[in-house]
Amino acid sequence: MSELQDAVKKYAKDLAGKLNNFVQDISTLEVRTYTTPADQVAIDVTEEKIKLEGKATLRAYTAISLDGDATVLAPTDAAGEITQSIWELHQATVKQALDNRATMIKTMGDAAAAALKALGQAGG
Q1: How far apart are CA 124 and CA 118, in angstroms?
Q2: Sign of the torsion formed by the C-alpha atoms of 111, 117, 122 and 123
Q3: Cα 48 to chain centroid, rounded
Q4: What DSSP line would sit under the chain, residue for residue?
Q5: What is the CA radius of gyration of the chain?
Q6: In whole angstroms, how far apart are CA 78 and each of 60, 83, 87?
Q7: Contact by Cβ (8 Å): 17, 24
Q8: Considering the chain, what percentage of its residues have pLDDT values greater than 70?
Q9: What is each CA distance from 112 to 2, 20, 69, 74, 104, in whole angstroms?
Q10: How many domains does the chain have?
């Protein structure tokens, strides 16, 4: 087998592994919106630090699976009314996350198609 065929097969195999991980990673899109006092905003915030340090409060949450099933928790004030400014920020973030996921799905699909085409052309 030629070096080209070997290289293309290795690329296709590596891509298949990455596609598998990618599908698992995107199976559920989660967006969490937190609020925190301005003097406690940290640059290196992680979900773990938020839970441990308690400086941020979860205000809205959305989870959307690949099949479209969704769980949404909307923020309310003391009167039970939705907190509009936080909700608008959260919705904008969800839209951006969905757009990013769609772009990544297209990119990975294009890469898979290119790998299959190269594999076919290399005779593998």
Answers
A1: 9
A2: positive
A3: 18
A4: --HHHHHHHHHHHHHHHHHHHHHHHHSEEEEEEEE--GGG--TT--HHHHHHH---EEEEEEEEETTS-EEEE--B-TTS-B-HHHHHHHHHHHHHHHHHHHHHHHHHHHHHHHHHHHHHHTT-
A5: 21
A6: 15, 10, 15
A7: no
A8: 91
A9: 22, 11, 26, 38, 12
A10: 1
Q: Is the dihedral of CA 45, 92, 60, 57 positive or negative?
A: positive
pLDDT tens track for 44-76: 677 777 777 767 788 999 999 988 899 999 989
Distance CA 62, CA 56 (A): 17
pTM of the entire predicted model: 0.71
- Map tokens 């938020």 to a residue: 50
Domain of residue 88: give its range. 3-121
Please give the single-letter amino acid code of residue 124: G
Instruction: Mark 109-120 as b/e (b = at least 16 C-beta within 10 Å).
Output: eeebeebeebbe
